[in-house]
Design a protein that fits this description.
By secondary structure, the protein is of the alpha/beta class. Helices cover 37% and strands 16% of the residues. It has helices spanning 2-17, 42-55, 59-68, 98-111, 162-171, 201-204, 224-238, 267-277, 280-295, 301-314, 335-346, 351-357, 413-423, 434-441, and strands spanning 72-79, 82-87, 118-123, 126-127, 130-131, 135-138, 176-177, 181-184, 242-243, 248-250, 257-263, 374-381, 386-394, 402-409. Helix 4 packs across helix 10 (301-314) and helix 5 crosses helix 7.
């Protein structure tokens, strides 16, 4: 009872600090002792306060209502997970590529933004510069790995290369491989479908997510592990390393020892590229990585989706997840739920990192959008005109970041941007304890 009473008082103070300093409804007191056992639950008061706040006619809310009129749209606005405004915000809608935003949260919480994905050259035994059996090329789900182009994905993301790995093998003193180069097919499955995907999605809008993938697996029709093994054999041969048997693929045996390895850029850089460009291949690769970490190998699209849903559930938000990219029409989340997840992220050590990883005006999928606003957001679009825009915006550097989520169908992008512009005008002040408020009371 004392905790609930504290939360009720904290909520009242928080709401009074928001724009307009709304008058509290009759019967709600800020001071006084907690009600004795058997009195009306404090949660009833919390509900009344929230309802009063949502009905407060602040100009920015009125403007949003005008913009949303006539469209099928859900909108939620809040600070640190506390809802300040809702418009049909509890109905579950298709998030499209906002699924990648939830994937990013789950990845950072599980692995941390500084995590790096390794690709290794391994063998059972090395003697006198000779690998006595096969040399195994073992991937772990790095979507950025390339043959020899460290800036294949653009200047902002540096990729590890097989050329670099081959040079490290040579530097380790390897001169001969008595067997062949083998590309490991573990620890990801080769599943290439998710419920809710249209038949044209595989290969047209996302490539096969294998643990050992090279150059995004574009134009790969066979096993990507064989493609990688062939490219690695070529790089080793250029360095004078003799390979005595043909290349191949298979599941790497146990008890291999590493000879050399390369690592991806920090996860924050990989996630930033995925979110800013809305790259589906990166999303399904990272989703399988997450699924493997949470549920074990083999990594599958389904396990990645389950891992995302498990993370949101722990944060108090139920979603429907079938993939990690948002290509499935069966992915579901409410704008209110997504806004609350943004609020949860705000309270995590990696929250500011995630915000900076999202596109700002003029970057990636926000090119030509939201000019002049201090905003970081993730877009989303599907072919049935489902659209999404969620993230953070603030009025100026002295204002708090405000979370928002807009999920709609057939609404012009220009109207989405106008709604974000209206949110940016809100003069909101947030007490330091507001973050504790939602986690304790909602």
């Amino acid at each position: 009872m004392r905790t609930r009473a504290f939360c009720a008082v904290a909520l009242i103070l928080t709401l009074a600090a928001c724009e307009g300093s709304p008058t509290l409804p009759a019967g709600v007191r800020v001071s006084g002792t907690p009600n004795p056992p058997g009195s009306a639950p404090h949660c009833h008061r919390l509900a009344r306060i929230r309802a009063h706040l949502e009905s407060d006619p602040a100009p920015w809310k009125t403007n949003i209502e005008r913009l949303a009129n006539g469209y099928s749209v859900g909108i939620a606005v809040g600070v640190r997970g506390l809802a300040l405004y809702e418009h049909d915000a509890r109905r579950h809608r298709t998030p499209a590529s906002n699924e990648k935003l939830m994937l990013s949260m789950a990845l950072f919480d599980r692995l941390g933004p500084h995590y790096r994905i390794r690709t290794r050259a391994m063998a059972r035994r090395v003697e006198g510069g000779e690998v006595s059996g096969n040399l195994w090329l073992v991937g772990a789900g790095d979507p950025t790995l390339t043959q020899k182009q460290p800036h294949y994905w653009g200047g902002a993301l540096t990729s590890p290369t097989l050329e670099e790995l081959a040079e490290k093998v040579r530097s380790a003193g390897i001169k001969t491989i008595a067997g062949g180069v083998r590309g490991s097919t573990a620890p990801f499955a080769h599943d290439f479908y998710a419920p809710g995907w249209k038949p044209y999605v595989p290969r047209s809008y996302v490539q096969l997510a294998a643990a050992l993938s090279l150059n995004g697996n574009f134009h790969v029709r066979g096993r990507p592990e064989r493609v990688a093994a062939r490219a690695f054999s070529h790089q080793l041969g250029r360095r004078g390393i003799e390979i005595e048997s043909p290349l191949g693929t298979g599941r790497a045996p146990a008890k291999l020892s590493p000879i050399a390895q390369v690592k991806s850029a920090p996860l924050t850089d990989v996630v930033a590229y995925m979110d800013q460009t809305s790259n589906n291949f990166f999303a399904e690769m990272l989703g399988k990585l997450l699924g493997t970490k949470v549920f074990g190998s083999p990594g599958t699209i389904r396990k990645g989706a389950r891992a995302i849903a498990a993370w949101t559930q722990r944060a108090g938000v139920s979603i429907g997840a079938e993939d990690s990219s948002g290509l499935s029409y069966r992915d579901k989340v409410s704008p209110l739920g997504l806004m609350r997840l943004l609020g949860t992220s705000e309270r995590r050590p990696w929250g500011a990192t995630l915000r900076q990883d999202l596109a700002a005006p003029g970057e990636g999928t926000l090119a030509g959008r939201l000019a002049g606003l201090d905003v970081h957001a993730k877009t989303g679009t599907l072919f049935n005109s489902d659209s999404a825009l969620s993230g953070w915006v603030r009025r100026n550097e002295d204002s708090p970041w405000v979370e928002f989520s807009i999920l709609d169908q057939n609404m012009p992008k220009a109207v989405e941007d106008q709604i974000v512009g209206a949110i940016a005008t809100a003069a909101i002040r947030v007490p330091a304890h507001a973050g504790l408020l939602r986690s304790a009371c909602l």
